[in-house]
Design goal:
The chain is of the alpha+beta class. 14% of the residues are buried. It folds into 2 domains: 99 residues, no CATH class; 89 residues, 2-Layer Sandwich (CRO Repressor). 61% of the residues lie in helices and 9% in strands. It starts with a helix and ends in a 6-residue tail after the last helix.
């Protein structure tokens, strides 16, 4: 098997600027599509969503590479993707408004134990998917939740109502110490005869 080293490292077959523009355009297009697909795609990817994500790179491959199949062109595209992503991330961190546009804002899905069915509908999220997320957060049902948010990254964050949350180790240790002190006081109390 012979390797054609010259063609492997040959110059890219399309102008460098065209390669950069193609890569940035596809990056931004996919970013917008994923942003429009919403938080549910990020949170609860079902098998159909996975198929879409896997095929997405193949669908846009020719839009990025054009007529170029060179190693140098592929590496240039990779560098451009990483640089644009890092640049947008830093820019979004510095400007909260841009961050909200790029990442989105959390969506309230539960308030004081009541599920916001309209919010679930807008997110394309089913009640069963919400219940699975609640279970992962330590809640058995929406009635136990004071506030539930779905973050732009797809994480479900819940604040359980007082009395509905699990005790922490410190709280359990404190309760055991109080019970022990009470028992010791009862056992050491002088007895009337």
């Amino acid at each position: 098997m012979n390797v054609d080293w010259v063609s492997l490292f040959s110059a890219i077959d399309i102008p460098w600027l065209e390669k950069v523009v193609r890569t940035v355009a596809v990056y931004l297009g996919i970013a917008v599509l994923i942003r429009l697909a919403g938080k549910r795609l990020m949170a609860q990817m079902n098998s159909l969503d996975l198929v879409v994500v896997l095929l997405l790179s193949n669908v846009v491959q020719n839009a990025i590479i054009g007529e170029d199949n060179s190693l140098v062109g592929g590496l240039l595209g990779a560098v451009v993707l990483v640089a644009v992503n890092a640049g947008l991330d830093r820019l979004a961190q510095a400007h909260p408004t841009l961050h909200a546009v790029i990442e989105g804002r959390p969506t309230h899905v539960i308030a004081d134990g009541e599920v916001d069915e309209g919010a679930l509908s807008r997110l394309g999220m089913t009640r069963d998917e919400l219940l699975i997320g609640l279970g992962r957060q330590g809640a058995d049902e929406p009635g136990e939740v004071a506030r539930g948010l779905l973050t732009p990254g797809g994480d479900l964050l819940v604040d359980l109502k007082q009395g509905e949350r699990s005790a922490t180790r410190d709280e359990l240790e404190q309760a055991v110490a109080e019970v022990k002190a009470h028992i010791d006081a009862v056992l050491n109390r002088p007895r009337d005869r």
